[in-house]
Amino acid sequence: MKSGIQDLQVGYFPGCSLQGSSRDFAESLHLVAKALSIELCEVPEWNCCGASSGHMIDHLVSMALPINVLLKAQKAGLDRVMAPCASCYNRLATARHEIAHSPASKAQVEKVLQTTIGKLPRVLNVLELLAEVADRIGPKVTKKFEQTVACYYGCLLVRPAKVTGFDRTEEPVEMDKLVAAVGGKTIDWNFKTECCGASFSVSRTAVVGRLGAKIMNDAVGKKAEAIVVACPMCHSNLDLRRGEINQRLDVKTDIPVLFITQVIGLALGLSEKELGLGRHFVPVAFPAKPVAAATVS
Amino acid sequence: MSRVGVFICHCGENIAGTVDVAAVAKAALDMPGVVHAIEYKYMCSDPGQTMLKDAIRDKRLDGVVVAACSPRMHEPTFRRTAEEGGINPYQCEMANLREHCSWVHEKGEPTTAKAVDLVRIQVEKVKRNHPLKPIRVPITKKALVLGGGIAGIQAALDIANTGSPVLLVEKSPSIGGHMSQLSETFPTLDCSQCILTPRMVEVARHPLITLYTYSELEKLEGFIGNFKATIRKKARKIDEKLCNGCGVCQQKCPVKKIPDQFNEGLSNRAAIYVPFPQAVPNKPVIDLENCTFFKSGKCKACEKLCPTKAIRFDQEDQIEVHDVGAVVLATGYKTMPVSNFSEYGYGKYKDVIDGMKFERLASASGPTGGAIKRPSDGKTPETIVFIACAGSRDRLKGVPYCSKICCMYTAKHAMLYQHKVHGGKATIFYMDIRAAGKNYDEFVRRAVEEDGVKYVRGRVSRVYEDGGQLVVKGVDTLLGAEQVEIRADMVVLATAVQAQDGAEELAQTLHVSYDPYKFFAEAHPKLRPVETNTAGIFLAGACQAPRDIPETVAQASGAAVKVAGLFSQPELTREPIIAVVDRQPPPVFSHCVGCFLCKSACPYQAIEEEPIKNRNGDVLKVVAKVNPGLCQGCGTCVSTCRTKAIDLQGFSNEQVFAELMSI
Fold first, then answer.
1. Does the interface predicted TM-score (ipTM) exceed 0.85?
2. Which among A161, A168, A194 is the nearest to B342, CB-wise?
3. B356 φ, ψ to 5°?
4. Architecture of domain A8-124 in CATH?
5. Residue B480 contacts residue B486 (beta carbons within 8 Å)
6. pLDDT 10s digits, A241-269
7. Nearest residue on chain A to B464, judged by CA atoms?
8. A155, A170, A220, A222: which to substitute to probe chain B, counting the most B Cβ within 10 Å?
9. 0.90 exceeded by the pTM?
């Protein structure tokens, strides 16, 4: 099997964000997946993961909703489910973890879902999936992504560590590695995993503005030309709420916020339009580089 | 025909309240071989013991069953009584009517019936007992102490002062251990070096202590009283007899940029060095990894300039083998590397240091002469933050246990800082303050009330650099769970105490058990805290668990007393409950076929190979032999033996089967 890359099949749970506020994430993900021979098998008849409001209101609901999704995935024969939205990922992984470790919770969920829970599919985030196929990315790069960026992970991809078991909790590096693989430079900064305000984006924009300002301040201060994220909430809060953020910054900033899939897509030479770059509030533009070298044919 | 006596104890109400003791005595009289059965309120009391002795004499008993409490409680008592009565002490057995019966069952017929069964079992056993003699083993009255920190120093001095010679083995070039690095010590703030160095000198001058620095234990064979220790003396590359410690070599060595371990990398040393000025012995050692001569074959500056011509580039490691009777493990601890706490920025920011580095900064013998200066630019920090529990009580990323010493030394650090930097602001982030110890809580209160140290109860989530300062982000969980941000000039992490590197390998070499965190395990957490499960090997200090200096010294003295107690006996006596290989004469007819399955099964390396020779000296057969000094009587070999050639004295197959058949 030396020649040709085998198709990798993986379950796919889009969640609501990727159909609404983060369509660009979905578009770029699908394009990049296709380019890297990953087949995303959407979980049939999936339901809401219960993020933000579900687990604030009712613990049982917050367990039952994601477990129902995983049951459907299992029924469809999927042994792994990738949830690109960090909130979805966190809800699915947390519920799966609790069911595996608490027989009482398991029994409760089994009761409300009127089923018995067997071995549930493993839950992946987008960085985990991309890291798995990292060796496929390099050879396909046609246009190096030669920007200096701040990789912003937010809180949900890595925490709590006992649930996610992904990367280094306080100092994650997986996204930095992916950016490096497509020719980008990443800065060493302090707000990689700080809170962006998440769903306060809707209800308390001032909070988001304050938290976002700290994040942007550090990234810009360390000469980042863009922020790279892997979470719809992070993206919204730093992109959509840039106005609120800029009100709290001494020097306003217009550096763009990109999804990791968009960064990889650009490096693979995919169309900017199809990658959804036009959907951002802060226009995707990079400072002109004093490029001397001729383009590689 | 046996003449067995049964003595049933009421244990006050403990047994008699549940078991019908009179019925048991009556039933016992009907058992074959029993000629005498009585019950009494307290068999262990003086009248009870007298009854037993008298009965042995009057009824001419050859076996005794005492039906009372657990043999762990009173077997030695009754065996002694039986001996005084005139029979072999191993002809006395105990039936446990208390823990195994009355305490765990309701009052009633079945309980009494079980008590009768328990008595019958022991009667069947005792009828098959053979007189046994305690095993006598000689003792080499010389101790080996591993580790030259305060624990090892104290243990060595205490043992030597009882008159027994001691070999003190330390792997680094000087004794002194971590304590020699400390500045002041809690709770009295007396200078660590001032109280330690006299002890170090005492060790060096003691006529009964032989010091092996820059040496390691390679192998330990044998058993209690009779160990054989193989010690590797690593080559210092100098002739210790000629060297007078003048220090010219250190000054003239051209390689000078090697991080000084003693100063925790805060200063540099040469490739030939004495770890610190007060080192014992005050003799240098050549660091082979950094010495120009050993790297490139050129230089030899030290050899040319040494006034006593003591440099020996061709010196080799030396191996010495010594007989010792006891071993004290005092190998100490290390502090946890904080590489998995990247959020605190240790290693990334020069001014984030650990507690040991702060000790060096605060120490009069340290690189700054005791002035608190930050490593990055030598500036005096105006604001300093201490983070307690950096790794301790952190199940996810650190260790689950409390490191015990950090609350106290962090209070001490903050106090020293306030004393040295007037107007400075010290803040401590903590989880709980654990200051249990004589004058300990008072010490912490003094830090708070007299020296104005600010304690914030909460964890720190991140430390990062911003504009030349360190921003410490944390939470104050007491005052309204507020988030706290402190701009500090320096951050000190109280890193967790961990077992020394190589502790696991050492434990395996010595056959000493250890806990999941590689701390050596004591024989009993309360009642045998300085002994290990391996007879003759004792524990002192932080190799067993995190310990502070007072506890370490107390434990070291405790271990020394155990060694002295062992050495005070002319020879060792041990319970004869050991395995024996059938050697009925003539030896050729031994059941043992020499398969040595027992040898691989024995957890104590007690099985030896013994050739059986004829008169011409030809080997006829090689059979197993049990070393009575090593055998712990576990019986594993007995169950492994294919030809039933091994039996356990006192618990022979015949006895155990008879017990089972009697039920």
1. no
2. A168
3. -65, -35
4. Up-down Bundle (1.20)
5. no
6. 999 999 999 999 999 999 999 999 999 99
7. A190
8. A170
9. no
